[in-house]
């Protein structure tokens, strides 16, 4: 009996060692394959975003490989994307997922979304260049947490300052009510909104926050309306604001509403309902980083068409950043002339010029650089109104903002025709 | 006036969720956390049917029926074996949570994580009441609760099967000695709780988009409601539902919405101090 057990243990040990060995072989970035790690929310509340992030990165990986892969030391290597699911439970899952990517699979480059606050502390002991395509909030900026973190996303301070500027310009609205869930992303919007409103001569007249899993938002809506606002900003993600928009409409409000969500026309239809969304969205303005459809860059527009053709879905703003993250990894590794030296790749990222194959239309910093001294990239932001004739967004105001001053500067660009992107 | 409407709407939703839980708890003595999964399944099925041009009434009836069948399957394949093993009190809550996880994951697999509104023809309609504009969605939530709970009360009081459920709920052994078929009664109670979950899915799915985890939080509020009302008491679930709804809305309006779940727990603590078995509760069963 004892020998049977011992034999079983020996076989199991051998299997584990063999699979670990195979795994290490597959992860050998010094070999013919470079494995890029992507820690994404493939399940849980943010799974809606995990899927398009993965799709865009996979599209980029295919194209990088079609273009010859990553050439280092005169040798071309194929790229592979390894996706690790954080389950949208960052505090709980990142301590398990990060070692899988970095210690087991030895990925030389990480792409993250939302989880960077939990990833950053682990980079101290195991530094890996980490490009964050979708930061949770900005207080403090994720780039302050570790100098291997690079922020790609046009984030809250790039976008929210446009809200009071635009609402005052278009509606002469100076009294802004805020409603949003009590969570980091929404609270960051409120902080930025208050600062930007004060700068532009407007003011936040009410701040209504509710628990993220509230059953009914009607009393929060009622409380915000009671402050007699001239504009309303709804904070939070697409999922959080959809019931708010519906209940504002059902309460009879015709006050212009602003939000920063990345909500697509398709999502508006699904979340609000096909019979109602056109009416609900009529007073809503979306503020966000440019999407493939609203981006004046032709490369981004073509990417949007390709993405839609391949995945049959409207490519939202974050798909461009995810797509570009792969090209940025390639450029940094080729500049550093290594696919394994993580410090050298991080150094290359710091000085990286905007790679020509990226599609977002990154604003060049300090000459031709992609990242500024705080390791943050910036692209155009846009205010969009709802096109009631076509049930889609129509860009109406392009601008840039961002830290440290959150100063809004209008960008004089020609908006593409978005009427074909209806939901 | 608007505040009253909000309180009545929220109270109706809580009551609708709580009566189903209370009914099941009364019969099997297990906190039926899996009801959240039944609600989500029904809502997601309604979304699917509605988006495939199935007429509204058929969509609702099929959704409720599916919820009823699902609840019976849960009773047959999860709770009944647990009760037969004699470990219902200890293992019941764990089994219920396990079934909820299975349903959540199953729904995620089948429907995906996308949130979608349950399509109803009245979502854009409003009506005026005392200078207040009221959404038809809210009126329907209240009407659904009144009709469903009214029908449940009639069923429990006027039918032989209903009286059997009440009997089993009061004393399982005595009911068996009186000739009540406890297993059959249990199946019927679960089917009815499923129908109520279907009605709750329609009500809740018009206030918030449907997705696999949509009812996991609200079901906890519904449990607070049934503890306040008295475990296993249907009238207690109704009164508790409206009490919690009113307190949450008043707290949000007068203090802050950020603490909405806390208000219900404050009421729970007060009730438990004053009436440890809840407002309408009997002595809590020990097995």
From TrEMBL, chain B:
The keyword Membrane applies. The chain crosses the membrane at residues 12-34, 54-74, 94-114, 134-156, 186-207, 219-247, 254-274. It is a multi-pass membrane protein. The keyword Cell membrane applies. GO terms for molecular function: transmembrane transporter activity. It is found in: Cell membrane. GO terms for biological process: amino acid transport. Keywords: Amino-acid transport, Cell membrane, Membrane, Transmembrane, Transmembrane helix, Transport. GO terms for cellular component: plasma membrane. It holds the Pfam family BPD_transp_2. InterPro entries: ABC_transp_permease, BCAA_transport_permease. It comes from the Bacteria. Belongs to the binding-protein-dependent transport system permease family. LivHM subfamily. This is Branched-chain amino acid ABC transporter permease.
């Amino acid at each position: 009996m004892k020998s049977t057990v011992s034999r079983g243990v020996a076989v199991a040990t051998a299997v584990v060692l063999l699979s670990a060995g195979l795994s290490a072989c597959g992860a050998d970035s010094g070999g013919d394959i470079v494995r890029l790690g992507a820690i994404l929310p493939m399940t849980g509340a943010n799974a809606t975003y995990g899927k398009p992030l993965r799709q865009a990165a996979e599209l980029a990986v295919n194209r990088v490989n079609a273009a010859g892969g990553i050439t280092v030391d005169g040798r071309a290597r194929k790229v592979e994307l390894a996706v690790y699911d954080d389950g949208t439970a960052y505090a709980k899952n990142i301590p398990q997922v990060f070692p899988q990517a970095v210690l087991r699979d030895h990925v030389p480059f990480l792409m993250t979304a939302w989880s960077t606050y939990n990833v950053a502390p682990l980079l101290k002991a195991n530094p890996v260049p980490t490009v964050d395509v979708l930061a949770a909030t900005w207080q403090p900026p994720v780039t302050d947490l570790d100098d291997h973190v690079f922020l790609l996303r046009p984030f809250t301070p790039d976008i929210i300052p446009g809200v009071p500027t635009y609402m005052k310009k278009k509606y002469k609205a100076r009294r802004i009510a805020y409603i949003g869930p009590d969570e980091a992303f929404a609270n960051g919007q409120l902080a930025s909104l208050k600062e930007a409103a004060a700068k532009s001569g407007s003011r936040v007249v009410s701040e209504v926050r509710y628990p993220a899993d509230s059953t009914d938002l009607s009393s929060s809506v009622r409380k915000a309306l009671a402050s007699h606002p001239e504009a309303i900003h709804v904070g939070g993600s697409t999922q959080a604001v959809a019931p708010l928009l519906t209940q504002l409409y059902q309460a009879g409000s015709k006050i212009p509403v602003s939000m920063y969500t990345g909500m697509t026309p398709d999502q508006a239809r699904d979340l609000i309902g096909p019979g109602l969304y056109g009416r609900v969205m009529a007073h809503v303005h979306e503020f966000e980083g440019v999407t493939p459809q609203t981006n004046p860059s032709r490369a981004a527009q073509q990417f949007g068409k390709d993405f839609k053709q391949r995945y049959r879905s409207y490519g939202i703003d974050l798909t461009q950043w995810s797509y570009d993250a792969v090209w940025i990894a390639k450029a940094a590794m080729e500049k550093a002339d290594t696919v394994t030296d993580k410090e050298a790749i991080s150094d290359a990222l710091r000085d990286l010029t905007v790679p020509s194959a990226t599609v977002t239309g990154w604003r060049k910093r300090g000459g031709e650089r992609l990242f500024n001294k705080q390791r943050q990239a910036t692209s155009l932001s846009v205010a969009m109104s709802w096109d009631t004739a076509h049930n889609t967004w129509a860009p109406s105001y392009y601008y840039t903002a961002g830290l440290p001053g959150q100063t809004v500067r209008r960008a004089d660009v020609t908006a593409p025709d978005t009427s074909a992107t209806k939901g | 006036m608007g505040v009253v409407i909000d309180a009545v709407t929220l109270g109706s939703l809580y009551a609708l969720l709580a009566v189903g839980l209370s009914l099941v708890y009364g019969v099997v003595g297990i906190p039926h956390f899996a009801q959240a999964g039944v609600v989500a399944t029904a809502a997601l099925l309604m979304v699917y049917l509605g988006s495939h041009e199935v007429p509204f009434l058929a969509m609702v009836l099929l959704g409720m029926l599916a919820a009823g069948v699902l609840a019976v399957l849960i009773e047959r394949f999860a709770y009944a074996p647990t009760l037969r093993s004699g470990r219902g009190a200890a293992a019941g809550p764990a089994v219920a949570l396990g079934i909820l996880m299975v349903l959540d994951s199953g729904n995620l697999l089948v429907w995906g994580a996308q949130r979608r509104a349950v399509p109803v023809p009245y979502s854009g309609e409003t009506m005026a009441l005392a200078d207040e504009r009221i959404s038809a969605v809210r009126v329907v939530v209240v009407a659904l609760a009144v009709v469903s709970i009214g029908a449940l009360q009639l069923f429990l009081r006027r039918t032989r099967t209903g009286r059997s459920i009440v009997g089993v709920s009061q004393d399982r052994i005595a009911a068996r000695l009186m000739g009540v078929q406890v297993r059959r009664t249990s199946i019927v109670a679960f089917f009815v709780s499923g129908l109520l979950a279907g009605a709750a899915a329609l009500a809740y799915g018009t206030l918030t988009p449907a997705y696999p985890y949509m009812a996991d939080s609200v079901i906890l509020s519904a449990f607070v409601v049934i503890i306040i009302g008295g475990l296993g008491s249907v009238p207690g679930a109704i009164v508790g539902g409206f009490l919690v709804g009113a307190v949450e809305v008043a707290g949000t309006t007068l203090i802050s919405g950020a603490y909405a779940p806390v208000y219900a727990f404050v009421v729970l603590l007060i009730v438990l101090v004053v009436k440890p078995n809840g407002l309408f509760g009997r002595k809590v069963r020990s097995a």
